[in-house]
Model the fold of this input.
Amino acid sequence: MPTKESVDPDAKLRSVLAQMAPGTALRDGLQRILRGSTGALIVLGQDKVVSTISSGGFNVDTEFTATRLRELAKMDGAVLCDRDATRILEAAVQLLPDPSIPTDEQGTRHRTADRVSRQTGLPVISVSKSMNIIALYIDGRRYVLEDAAAILSRANQALATLERYRLRLDEVTNSLSALEIEDLVTVRDVAVVAQRYEMVRRIAAEVTDYLVELGTDGRLLSLQLEEFVAGTAEGQRLVVRDYVSGTAKRPKSPEPILTALASLDSAGLLDLGSIATALGMPGDIESLDSAVRPRGYRILHRIPRLPEAVIANLISHFGALQKILSASVEDLRDVEGVGEARARNIRENLSRIAESSLMERFA
Done:
């Protein structure tokens, strides 16, 4: 079974950046080294490969603290820590990686860091006293840590964009609800909503990456992000379930469709035809205006305290939203798991949702 890191190649990078974020002991130690202008080479992890390319040094095996890292970095050689940077294992270690490993880095410390990372597969941190930077080498990549103020500025800009996208998403989803009530939905309408959901997801993912690097400095931004993306993941899944995921009686997992949407490049995301194709719908210009009918997942999920099992039974029984909307209390009562009281509650809530959706559209 593939691990999360194998599915998402950036998961390992984000994990290490979280360890190095402001507010962590590792970041504090790195900043102390940077301010002291001594430089450092730090390996996060120790295994047989590291042992074979290590020479000299001495065992420390003590709890990791920023002060200890700073003091040990004053000596020549690398500092070896455990993978989670909770313990310092060795210090003053001379690393001798395979010199045939290609690297574009200049300077002994950076070239060593790059080669050690490539040979061992472990994250290696290089603190440069001459360039005044902290560089992380991982999976053949070099990532330079930026000042928190610069990251914070970009994160704020991305949040402002996310806010605008969320407002537009709310507009198109409200419009879709009204069109569903009137039975006027087209492929184009569904594609527009799917497009907006994916745009919000991508901007939110970008902000999340910034928050990983910001650590404790991004707490307020994290709260804003949660507010802007609340309900969007589930909303996107419900759209897929409503229109393209299997049939009413034999629903399928929406995951393949969501993966197809996520794999669209920037140009594809701006093309409604490409989005419709990813959704499993016809994507040619003529077909974008063809009618489609929802099963009712989105609307039924707006009814308070309506169990998922009952929603599934309603959709399996009636097959489409329009039939559910036109069903009487008696018709609803005959569905498994509904009953008299719940049937009346469903009928009243559907009438309220239909009225409010139409009022919002024509307001």
